[in-house]
Amino acid sequence: MSIIGRRGIHHLQKLNTPNIPTVECQNRVIDASLTLIRESAKLKGKLVRALGGAVASSSLLGVPLGHNSSFLQGPAFAPPLIREAIWCGSTNSTTEEGKELKDPRVLTDVGNLPVQEIRDCGVDDDRLMNVISESVKLVMEEAPLRPLVLGGDHSISYPVVRAVSEKLGGPVDILHLDAHPDIYHAFEGNKYSHASSFARIMEGGYARRLLQVGIRSINYEGREQGKRFGVEQYEMRTFSRDRDFLENLKLGEGVKGVYISIDVDCLDPAFAPGVSHIEPGGLSFRDVLNILHNLQGDVVAADVVEFNPQRDTAGGMTAMVAAKLVRELAAKMSKSYNPWEYPETPSFDLA
Ligand SMILES: [Mn+2]
């Protein structure tokens, strides 16, 4: 038998043996995944810098991860549906305060981190979380790009915030909109659970202030953990009293900026039924926009998580809701030197 023939048989025998991924295999897939994000971020960074005038520019990074959910894993499928809804022809591409999303200086997209492929070669969550952090840093390397991360379940906020804080060299203030505080020490034994991400963030010292808004599913441990970490928890049952304060927030002064994490279930399920954890009594969409629009602070990064397309209405209502949150966040994050360079965007602010 020829050498080629023997190799062929050997190869087939290998395929027939149980597939035990090696560290070598994992390294290759992780390298390739990060190369994908690095090159994409370089391209978008070059484009934005070539157009000129932007000091901060939002860039989408999809992290399709759903396995750290305690209930349903559908959020892994969210990023492509959010993107589709952002550009849905039923609405125009201008944000409420007048920024043009088709301008790459406002919004670009570096694509998805291939989470499934990384997990398929046996990478565990200790390493996967590091890879997510690395991908966020690669986007931040390409100034003026700032990461606007599409989840995924809420477990991704830990590696994302960690990366932002490490890259900027200090803590940030976090505005966290959610029905849940996600601050269990661990949930069902999983320290990376989507119900524990803010415990990891606070332990790591990545946040100076953590404001949780929209909370209406919180137990004894959630309140105790909140006190332990000095979290400012604004519960829905007192929202009418807190509204004026929350609609006039000023954050991020004296630290590296503001991080905004939006769990779509902060909204009342009447506005956003496509979530894993339906919790009545939430914020209206306009409440959330008022909080975002009026917030004073330098938003250095953000995420929109927990949209579950498998629970959405047939018309994709929650996809549109998640997309509008992303659009308005993109407008909030992007800033320009020269407002007059954006003819379609008269209200570009320098804040
Ligand atoms: Mn939640």
UniProtKB/TrEMBL annotation:
Instruction: List the CDD domains.
Output: Agmatinase-like_2
Identify the metabolic or biological route this protein is part of.
Nitrogen metabolism; urea cycle; L-ornithine and urea from L-arginine: step 1/1
Q: Identify which top EC class this enzyme belongs to.
A: hydrolase
The record's EC number reads 3.5.3.1
This protein's source sits in the domain of life called: Eukaryota
* Catalysed reaction, written as an equation: L-arginine + H2O = urea + L-ornithine
Q: Which UniProt keywords apply?
A: Arginine metabolism, Hydrolase, Manganese, Metal-binding
Return the similarity comment. Answer: Belongs to the arginase family. Agmatinase subfamily.
Protein's name in the database: arginase
